[in-house]
Design brief:
By secondary structure, this protein is mostly helical. Helices cover 76% and strands 2% of the residues. It contains five helices and two strands; from the N terminus they run αααααββ. β1 and β2 form a beta hairpin. α2 runs antiparallel to α3 and α2 packs parallel to α5. The longest helix is centred in the last third of the chain and has 107 residues. 11% of the residues are buried.
Length: 258
């Protein structure tokens, strides 16, 4: 096919190929919407905990709040362009061919014969063919211009949505790092507090056990001192002796003086 824009067939071919290219590019832009979904999903995992940690606790850090505010602005702007990206628009498609070889052809034939009834059939067909190509090119141009505009606008929306979405990740990572560090500090504080409580309980238990042992020893010594009254023995010099303490199913625990 000769590359001449004086040739209507070449003009038709060029416009048809351009329409296919813009439709394919427009569909690829919409397919990239999954990239934005991945970014938003990753941000949403920790968004609520970070918000609660920053604004619903008494320990507020204003620089972190400002950082979260910057994230909110960037993230909101990205969502704004994402919504504009997914809003349906009018994409032009070519009409069915029978509109030309039936409706348009008959109308052109009537109009030409009405103006010049003496036209021969070959001349009539030649002029009608040229006019039909002109009408078809007009439809192609309208379709191409609209689809080009749609593609440019949607590409711009996707670009801005992706750019602001990626920019919002930076302040969010700062807030997330502060949240994780603060959470680890709280965990360490709880662990230290629990260890201190356990140590205190153990000390209190050992002190109470020592008191019980000493009180029982004193009571036994006193009892033994009072009750022991052997003939010919100075009871005050008698060293108390204890029997073995045996629990069922356990080892023998020897007395204190063994």
């Amino acid at each position: 096919m000769p590359y001449s824009f004086y040739d209507l067939d070449y003009i038709i071919d060029v416009n048809e190929r351009r329409i296919d290219q813009y439709l394919s590019a427009y569909q690829k832009v919409l397919a990239r919407f999954t990239n934005l979904i991945l970014i938003y999903s990753a941000l949403m995992i920790f968004l609520i905990p970070v918000f609660e940690q920053l604004f619903l606790t008494n320990d507020k850090k204003y620089w972190l709040c400002c950082c979260f505010g910057l994230f909110s602005v960037l993230f909101g702007t990205s969502l704004f362009f994402t919504v504009r990206l997914i809003i349906p628009v009018q994409v032009y498609f070519l009409r069915t061919p029978n509109a030309y070889y039936e409706n348009f052809r008959l109308r052109y034939e009537r109009n030409l014969l009405h103006k010049n009834p003496t036209l021969s059939k070959p001349e009539l067909e030649s002029k009608v063919a040229q006019l039909l190509k002109a009408s078809y090119i007009n439809e192609l141009e309208r379709t191409l211009n609209n689809n080009e505009s749609v593609f440019i606008r949607k590409s711009s929306f996707y670009y801005h949505a992706l750019r602001f979405g990626l920019l919002s990740v930076l302040p969010f990572l700062i807030c997330l790092s502060a949240y994780l560090l603060q959470k680890q500090e709280n965990i360490h504080k709880i662990e230290i507090y629990n260890i201190e409580k356990i140590i205190k309980l153990l000390k209190m238990h050992s002190m109470s056990k020592d008191k019980n042992d000493s009180s029982s020893t004193n009571s036994q010594d006193t009892v033994n001192g009072i009750t022991t009254n052997l003939p010919g023995v100075d009871n005050s010099l008698v060293i108390p002796s204890y029997p073995y303490m045996i629990k069922e199913g356990s080892l023998i625990i020897k007395g204190k003086n063994q």
